[in-house]
Amino acid sequence: MIPRKGLVSICIPTYNGADYLQEVMGGILAQTYRNVEIIIVDDNSTDNTLEIAREATRNVSEVRIYQNSIRKGLGGNWNKCLEMATGEWIKFVFQDDLISPDCIEKLYELAIQTDKKMAVCGRTFLFHQNVSRAFQENFLNYVRNNSIANRFPDSSGVVLAEDFARHAEEYPVFNCIGEPTAVMFHHSIISRFGYFNTDLTQILDWEYWMRAAINEGFCFTDEKRVTFRLHHKGTTVQNRSEAGLLDLIDELIVYHELYYSPHYAGFRNRMKLDIPVKNLIESKLISQYCAIQSIIDQYPENERRSYLIEKYRFKGNGNPVHPHRSPFTVHRSPSTVNGER
Fold this sequence. Notes:
Helices cover 43% and strands 18% of the residues. By secondary structure, it is an alpha/beta fold. The chain has helices at 21-29, 49-56, 73-84, 103-114, 133-145, 148-151, 161-170, 188-193, 204-216, 235-241, 245-260, 265-272, 275-295, 303-311; strands spanning 4-14, 36-42, 63-67, 87-92, 98-99, 118-127, 158-159, 183-186, 218-230.
């Protein structure tokens, strides 16, 4: 498929998103950048999400609404959006997030001006009253510590690939870019670097940004053009309440991909010139596996967890696990996540 030049595919993955979808759609339909298609992929919702989506877009010509026949889970639903997108650019908007009317226009202009394949904007946060004060404080502290401004203080709108690679050496599992609603990326990112890794539970967006930025860099603006909403139904809040083993497995996967995936070959070539960093990534991969093994007996037996731990364990200095294909084609394994955030 040849992407349609200048077209932005607005991808909206949904699952039981009736609470906020009407408001979200209002912001999408008010965009000042008009060359867009709207793609809504519903992951077999049990509420009236689809009815709201159809009603909100009934006068929109460039819209496609699709419902999965069986649940694909978080990453699987995101990937279905990417499969359906025909635009030159991809812009995710989640079912409970908000974007300013000029969000897409400004990100598109920024990407064209800087000749970068990924554009990022600042975001504000809207906490539902049922989210605890402790969670809010911890979340905002994490965001401040891992902001682009904090991690790249000398960058003025562009982070080069080599600078991001140095960042990834030091902070490989901390998301400094943000959630998908804050990002717009070129369709060629999919053909070059594949799809979201559905084996990840919480940081699948970060690993995808890292996979792209470590090779391409990115451009950014501190202007806050999106609002990320957190509430008790959102996967971000749910997953943080289930932290521990899931976090360890996510980090194990990231270290494994840095060490083995062909998408990080340039990163590894750079590490060869910096043996301490290479040894550090290797030691983190091994220690993460050992940490999981030390606590796994505390959790009920789970076939999927066992599969992931075996798949992503340290395997020595041999070839990548899947040397004959991209490891991030669309996975068909079941997801453990029930939300669409």
